[in-house]
Amino acid sequence: MAASEEVKVPRIKLGSQGFEVSAQGQGCMGMSAFYGPPKPEPDMIKLIHHAICRGITHLDTSDIYGPHTNEILIGKALKEGIRAKVELATKFAISYQDEKFDVRGDPAYVRACCEASLKRLDVDCIDLYYQHRIDTRVPIEVTIGELKKLVEEGKIKYIGLSEASASTIRRAHAVHPITAVQLEWSLWTRDVEEEIIPTCRELGIGIVAYSPLGRGFFSSGPKLIENLAEGDYRKALKEGIRAKVELATKFAISYQDGKVDVRGDPAYVRACCEASLKRLDVDCIDLYYQHRIDTRVPIEVTIGELKKLVEEGKIKYIGLSESSASTIRRAHAVHPITAVQLEWSLWSRDVEEEIIPTCRELGIGIVAYSPLGRGFFSSGPKLVENFTEGDRRKGMPRFQAENLEHNKNLYEQVNAIASRKGCTPSQLALAWVHHQGKDVCPIPGTTKIENLDQNIGALSVKLSAEEMAELESIASAIKGERYESDAGLGTWKTSETPPLSTWKRT
């Protein structure tokens, strides 16, 4: 651990209006709110005083912290000449009434909040006054106009914004110089780097990074979750997001000593489920797939164990992946199968003859993975040029030189249709999968926000029967197998399992 006793905290200019602060500040929210119950007041005042003695003089609070109690705490800590030693920042805009949050930026509210904060803090002037969140019902010029008046009246010195877009920052800065923009910026929150940070630097606006430790994650790591107290806002964040998603994960493929193995025996199934629950930090998995079929274990045995996990409330629904029609039928007879995941796209259509009809006959949902042909319909042949070390597509037959040139011509034909339709090739390919039916859910993967938005746009692409047929005609000429022969992963073609009668309980 880096030594701290001899470190002198430097001073920096925040913004371009001359406001000088300690290069590291002290966020005070957790002393009174959101991160568990309020901490003992004497301890917190002692902490603030210690911070000031060490050179941390930039104190950050808000009227919503408590609400109000954090400002009162700070006010008490600034008695007896301490006020003159600090740069005091507080915020307005978020109100909490009847268990509902509201954001306000109208002039009367701005002024009332400022007067109330001055009183709670027991000071004559606030050094830096932030709009905590932007009221999207009020033009930013109106809010900043009122803050400008408060500067002129000597009630605040500098104006700040928090969680504001680049365009809002520009509009606000045109009314009165913005000294600082507060935003979440850390090793695990970097979305501000593309537009907000450059805008601030262009305009000479200081940047105040809140939650630089990833809301405490980089202090304690995953064990942080275990210690979240009742009322800790981070707990609500976690639980709230979980409730908004349908979470699917898989088991069956293990990788040890450089070798791939597929397992479906009951003990392994249960151990995998328990481990996934722990890693995901959830009580229940919505959809639990057998990723590949263990051809040594009767499918009835594997599904029997999954059925027990459903009954125990550890999983809600059971899925299969790369499973033959007969294996699907045998599994479905033990417990209803909710979804079968399979590779289905313009360049992988072998499942249409038997698997798709079986799923539809049994009322099983279809989840199409790699609907963009493992990225081929996003980037075309140039995709190969960007394969990095460890990208498993490098070894796939369809990306090999002997097949790629042929497949390149097919991509160009798809691209021509996309141009005609006013969409991208990836949107066209994804739209084709969506047009297969309402029982089909494609799951394109991406690591870029712009690609995610583009994928969503595919839902608006309409294809006629003639266009569907034209695309299918082109795709039928794809050259190369899905996997190399020694890939070590089976597909639905090699997923038959022994009869149940052969299984011996251990």
Care to describe what's here?
Keywords: NADP, Oxidoreductase. This is DH200=94 genomic scaffold, scaffold_1129. Pfam families: Aldo_ket_red. GO terms for molecular function: oxidoreductase activity. By secondary structure, the protein is an alpha/beta fold. The protein is elongated and about 85 Å long. 37% of the residues lie in helices and 18% in strands. Helix 5 crosses helix 6 (166-175), helix 6 packs parallel to helix 7 (196-203) and helix 10 crosses helix 11 (299-311). Strand 15, helix 11 (299-311) and strand 16 form a beta-alpha-beta unit. The chain has helices at 29-32, 41-53, 69-77, 107-121, 140-152, 166-175, 196-203, 217-220, 233-242, 266-280, 299-311, 325-334, 355-362, 376-379, 401-421, 425-434, 449-457, 465-475, and strands at residues 11-14, 19-22, 26-27, 58-60, 87-92, 94-97, 100-103, 126-131, 156-162, 180-184, 206-210, 248-251, 253-256, 259-262, 285-290, 315-321, 337-343, 365-369, 440-442. Strands 3-4-5-8-9-10-11 form a seven-stranded parallel beta sheet, with helices on one face. The protein has a six-stranded parallel beta sheet with strand order 12-15-16-17-18-19. Strands 1-2 form a two-stranded antiparallel sheet. It has two domains: 11-212, Alpha-Beta Barrel (TIM Barrel), CATH 3.20.20; 245-500, NADP-dependent oxidoreductase domain (TIM Barrel), CATH 3.20.20.100.
